[in-house]
Amino acid sequence: MSVPGPSDPTAALETLRRVFGYDAFRGFQAEVIEHVVAGGDALVLMPTGGGKSLCYQIPALVRDGVAVVISPLIALMQDQVDALRAVGVRAGFLNSTLDPDTRRLVEAEFVAGEIDLLYLAPEALASRGTLSLLDRGRIALFAIDEAHCVSQWGHDFRPDYLTLSMLPERWPDVPRIALTATATSATRTEIATRLQLTGARHFVASFDRPNIQYRIVPKREPRKQLLSLLRDEHPGDAGIVYCLSRASVDKTAEFLVANGIAALPYHAGLDAATRARNQQRFLREDGLVMVATIAFGMGIDKPDVRFVAHLDLPKSVEGYYQETGRAGRDGLPSTAWLAYGLQDVVQQRKMIDSSEGDLAHRRNLAAHLDAMLALCETVRCRRAQLLEYFGEPATGGCGNCDTCLEPPESWDGTVPAQKLLSTVYRLDRERNQRFGAGHCIDILLGKQNDKVSQFRHDQLTVFGIGTDLREAEWRGVVRQLLAEGLLTVEGDYGTLALTDASAEVLGRRRTVMLRREPERPARSAAKPRGAATVVAELPAEAAPLFERLRAWRAATAKEQGVPAYVIFHDATLRQIAADAPASLAELSRISGVGENKLAKYGEPILAVLANPDTPA
Ligand code: ADP
Ligand code: ZN
């Protein structure tokens, strides 16, 4: 492919338009690209969906030689390369899955400079064979994707990333660009140090994802709540449901399938072939729901994941943000939904208490959990709280989270808190017995049951003093006191116990403000206001056309054996449906329709538009 030389400042923009079919750069893409094209090193931090790939793909096309891209996920290299080939970019990969003939072919293409990008796994750089291969070609730049994998304290640590520190010694003149969506400044410093990128220019984007609507709801019947979310708001949409345990992944997937939702399980207990097959199907087919443990998701760059639902409380805000960030990479409105309840708090505190590791380690886990609980219980804007957590000052409410859309009421819960704490205090004196939250609430509500009569708890002065609140409200009180550290759980059975801070409440030295438990779960039929600014709504009359285009895309993707989004993204199909272009020239002006895709799919698209009888 002939491109203007790197000295031409318009080369990058021209490439963006012609090859990728986009009008303009986003955020600081243009600055990063200019810097790398000129030979500078860069460390790029952008949220998922921010558009990191173009930051190295365009320099790869503009600079002489082949860009070497280090990517940790062998299973996804084929898709990455397919997506580039679909826009007419010459790319290849080398990893252990290739047969010897294909390998030789790709190696020859690299040496001859017949490709523009070569994807490699980090472990490849430890092999002499690969190093000498690299010496035989001309390298345009090194791109280090998912650069946080070099962080030893992060959850995605890959020891092979440490070897990447040798790149500047061996290839001092080749620019390097490291990219990650992991936000904290500690990770950023660690990446710069370990990759010898201390002299690199840092580009740090805002981590806000305005098209994602954040919602955290009280957990009642989680699977049913999930089902109504999917039916009411996301029918036919692709999404991810995260569960803590393998067993609940399996059960939830079965439940969804039994209720007519196309869902697949994914967890480390499944054999590798099933896992790979389910992941492939999720990427390739439209509208599948993946029910998974957090083992699933890194590097999944499916742009049209419309929702991420958590049925269990994540262990940290970092994890939560990374997982929810997999929704809406294409910028279209998406939902991040979490159901959270008392049992989550009890369970996680127990897990921390019984975890291996020293006190410092347990404290670290507890601090992460506390930050997550604070996010769940806040009456402020969720987005503002998230961004502040990552060190970004937030301004006012976002208008696209549950607390902004339906501001929760807070109320003075000091008296109920005292009633609950007194009950715990009285039970605490029966040292060798174990009483969890359920039993305390039964006592407060004055419920007669076997356990109450066995221990004669109907004789306690607190028996029946809490009938002014409903059971769900009492569970809310317990949960919030646990979240605030005014109450704790002990032992294997989740026995409630007082903390030092409890005394302040019992001694009337502290008021307790609580978030009101909604009578019924808030149905968020509310239109995501913030998201409307990201992309135009599809006009109602264009919806049937969009569905026909989707059907055409599904058939084409199947025929070519590539994911549907490699053909066209949803955003592009929507625009085509809305504008209904009448000619190739009009079609070429739509964002996401580059030269190659116009040549390949232009006529078939116009045929779908012209013929309303095309089967959908
Ligand atoms: P990241 O790797 O940062 O998560 P991607 O590189 O996958 O993000 O980009 C996210 C989405 O945004 C992709 O669908 C990509 O095609 C699109 N995109 C990136 N840059 C632009 C741009 N300048 N104009 C329009 N779309 C863009
Ligand atoms: Zn908000």
UniProtKB/TrEMBL annotation:
BP GO terms, sorted: DNA recombination; DNA repair; DNA replication; SOS response
Domain HRDC: residue ranges: 539-616
SMART domains, sorted: DEXDc (SM00487), HELICc (SM00490), HRDC (SM00341), RQC (SM00956)
GO terms, molecular function: 3'-5' DNA helicase activity; ATP binding; DNA binding; four-way junction helicase activity; hydrolase activity; metal ion binding
Domain Helicase ATP-binding: residue ranges: 33-201
Class of the enzyme per the UniProt entry, highest EC level: isomerase
Cofactor(s) recorded in Swiss-Prot or TrEMBL: Zn(2+); Mg(2+)
Keywords noted in UniProt: ATP-binding, DNA damage, DNA recombination, DNA repair, DNA-binding, Helicase, Hydrolase, Isomerase, Metal-binding, Nucleotide-binding, Zinc
Listed SUPFAM superfamilies: HRDC-like, P-loop containing nucleoside triphosphate hydrolases
Short name of one Pfam family: HRDC
InterPro entries referenced in this protein's UniProt entry, alphabetically: DEAD/DEAH_box_helicase_dom, DNA_helicase_ATP-dep_RecQ, DNA_helicase_ATP-dep_RecQ_bac, Helicase_ATP-bd, Helicase_C-like, HRDC-like_sf, HRDC_dom, HRDC_dom_sf
Catalysed reaction, written as an equation: Couples ATP hydrolysis with the unwinding of duplex DNA by translocating in the 3'-5' direction
Entry keyword annotation includes Repressor: no
EC assignment: 5.6.2.4
One GO cellular component term: bacterial nucleoid
The Helicase C-terminal domain, residue ranges: 222-373
Family the entry assigns: Belongs to the helicase family. RecQ subfamily.
Protein name: DNA helicase RecQ
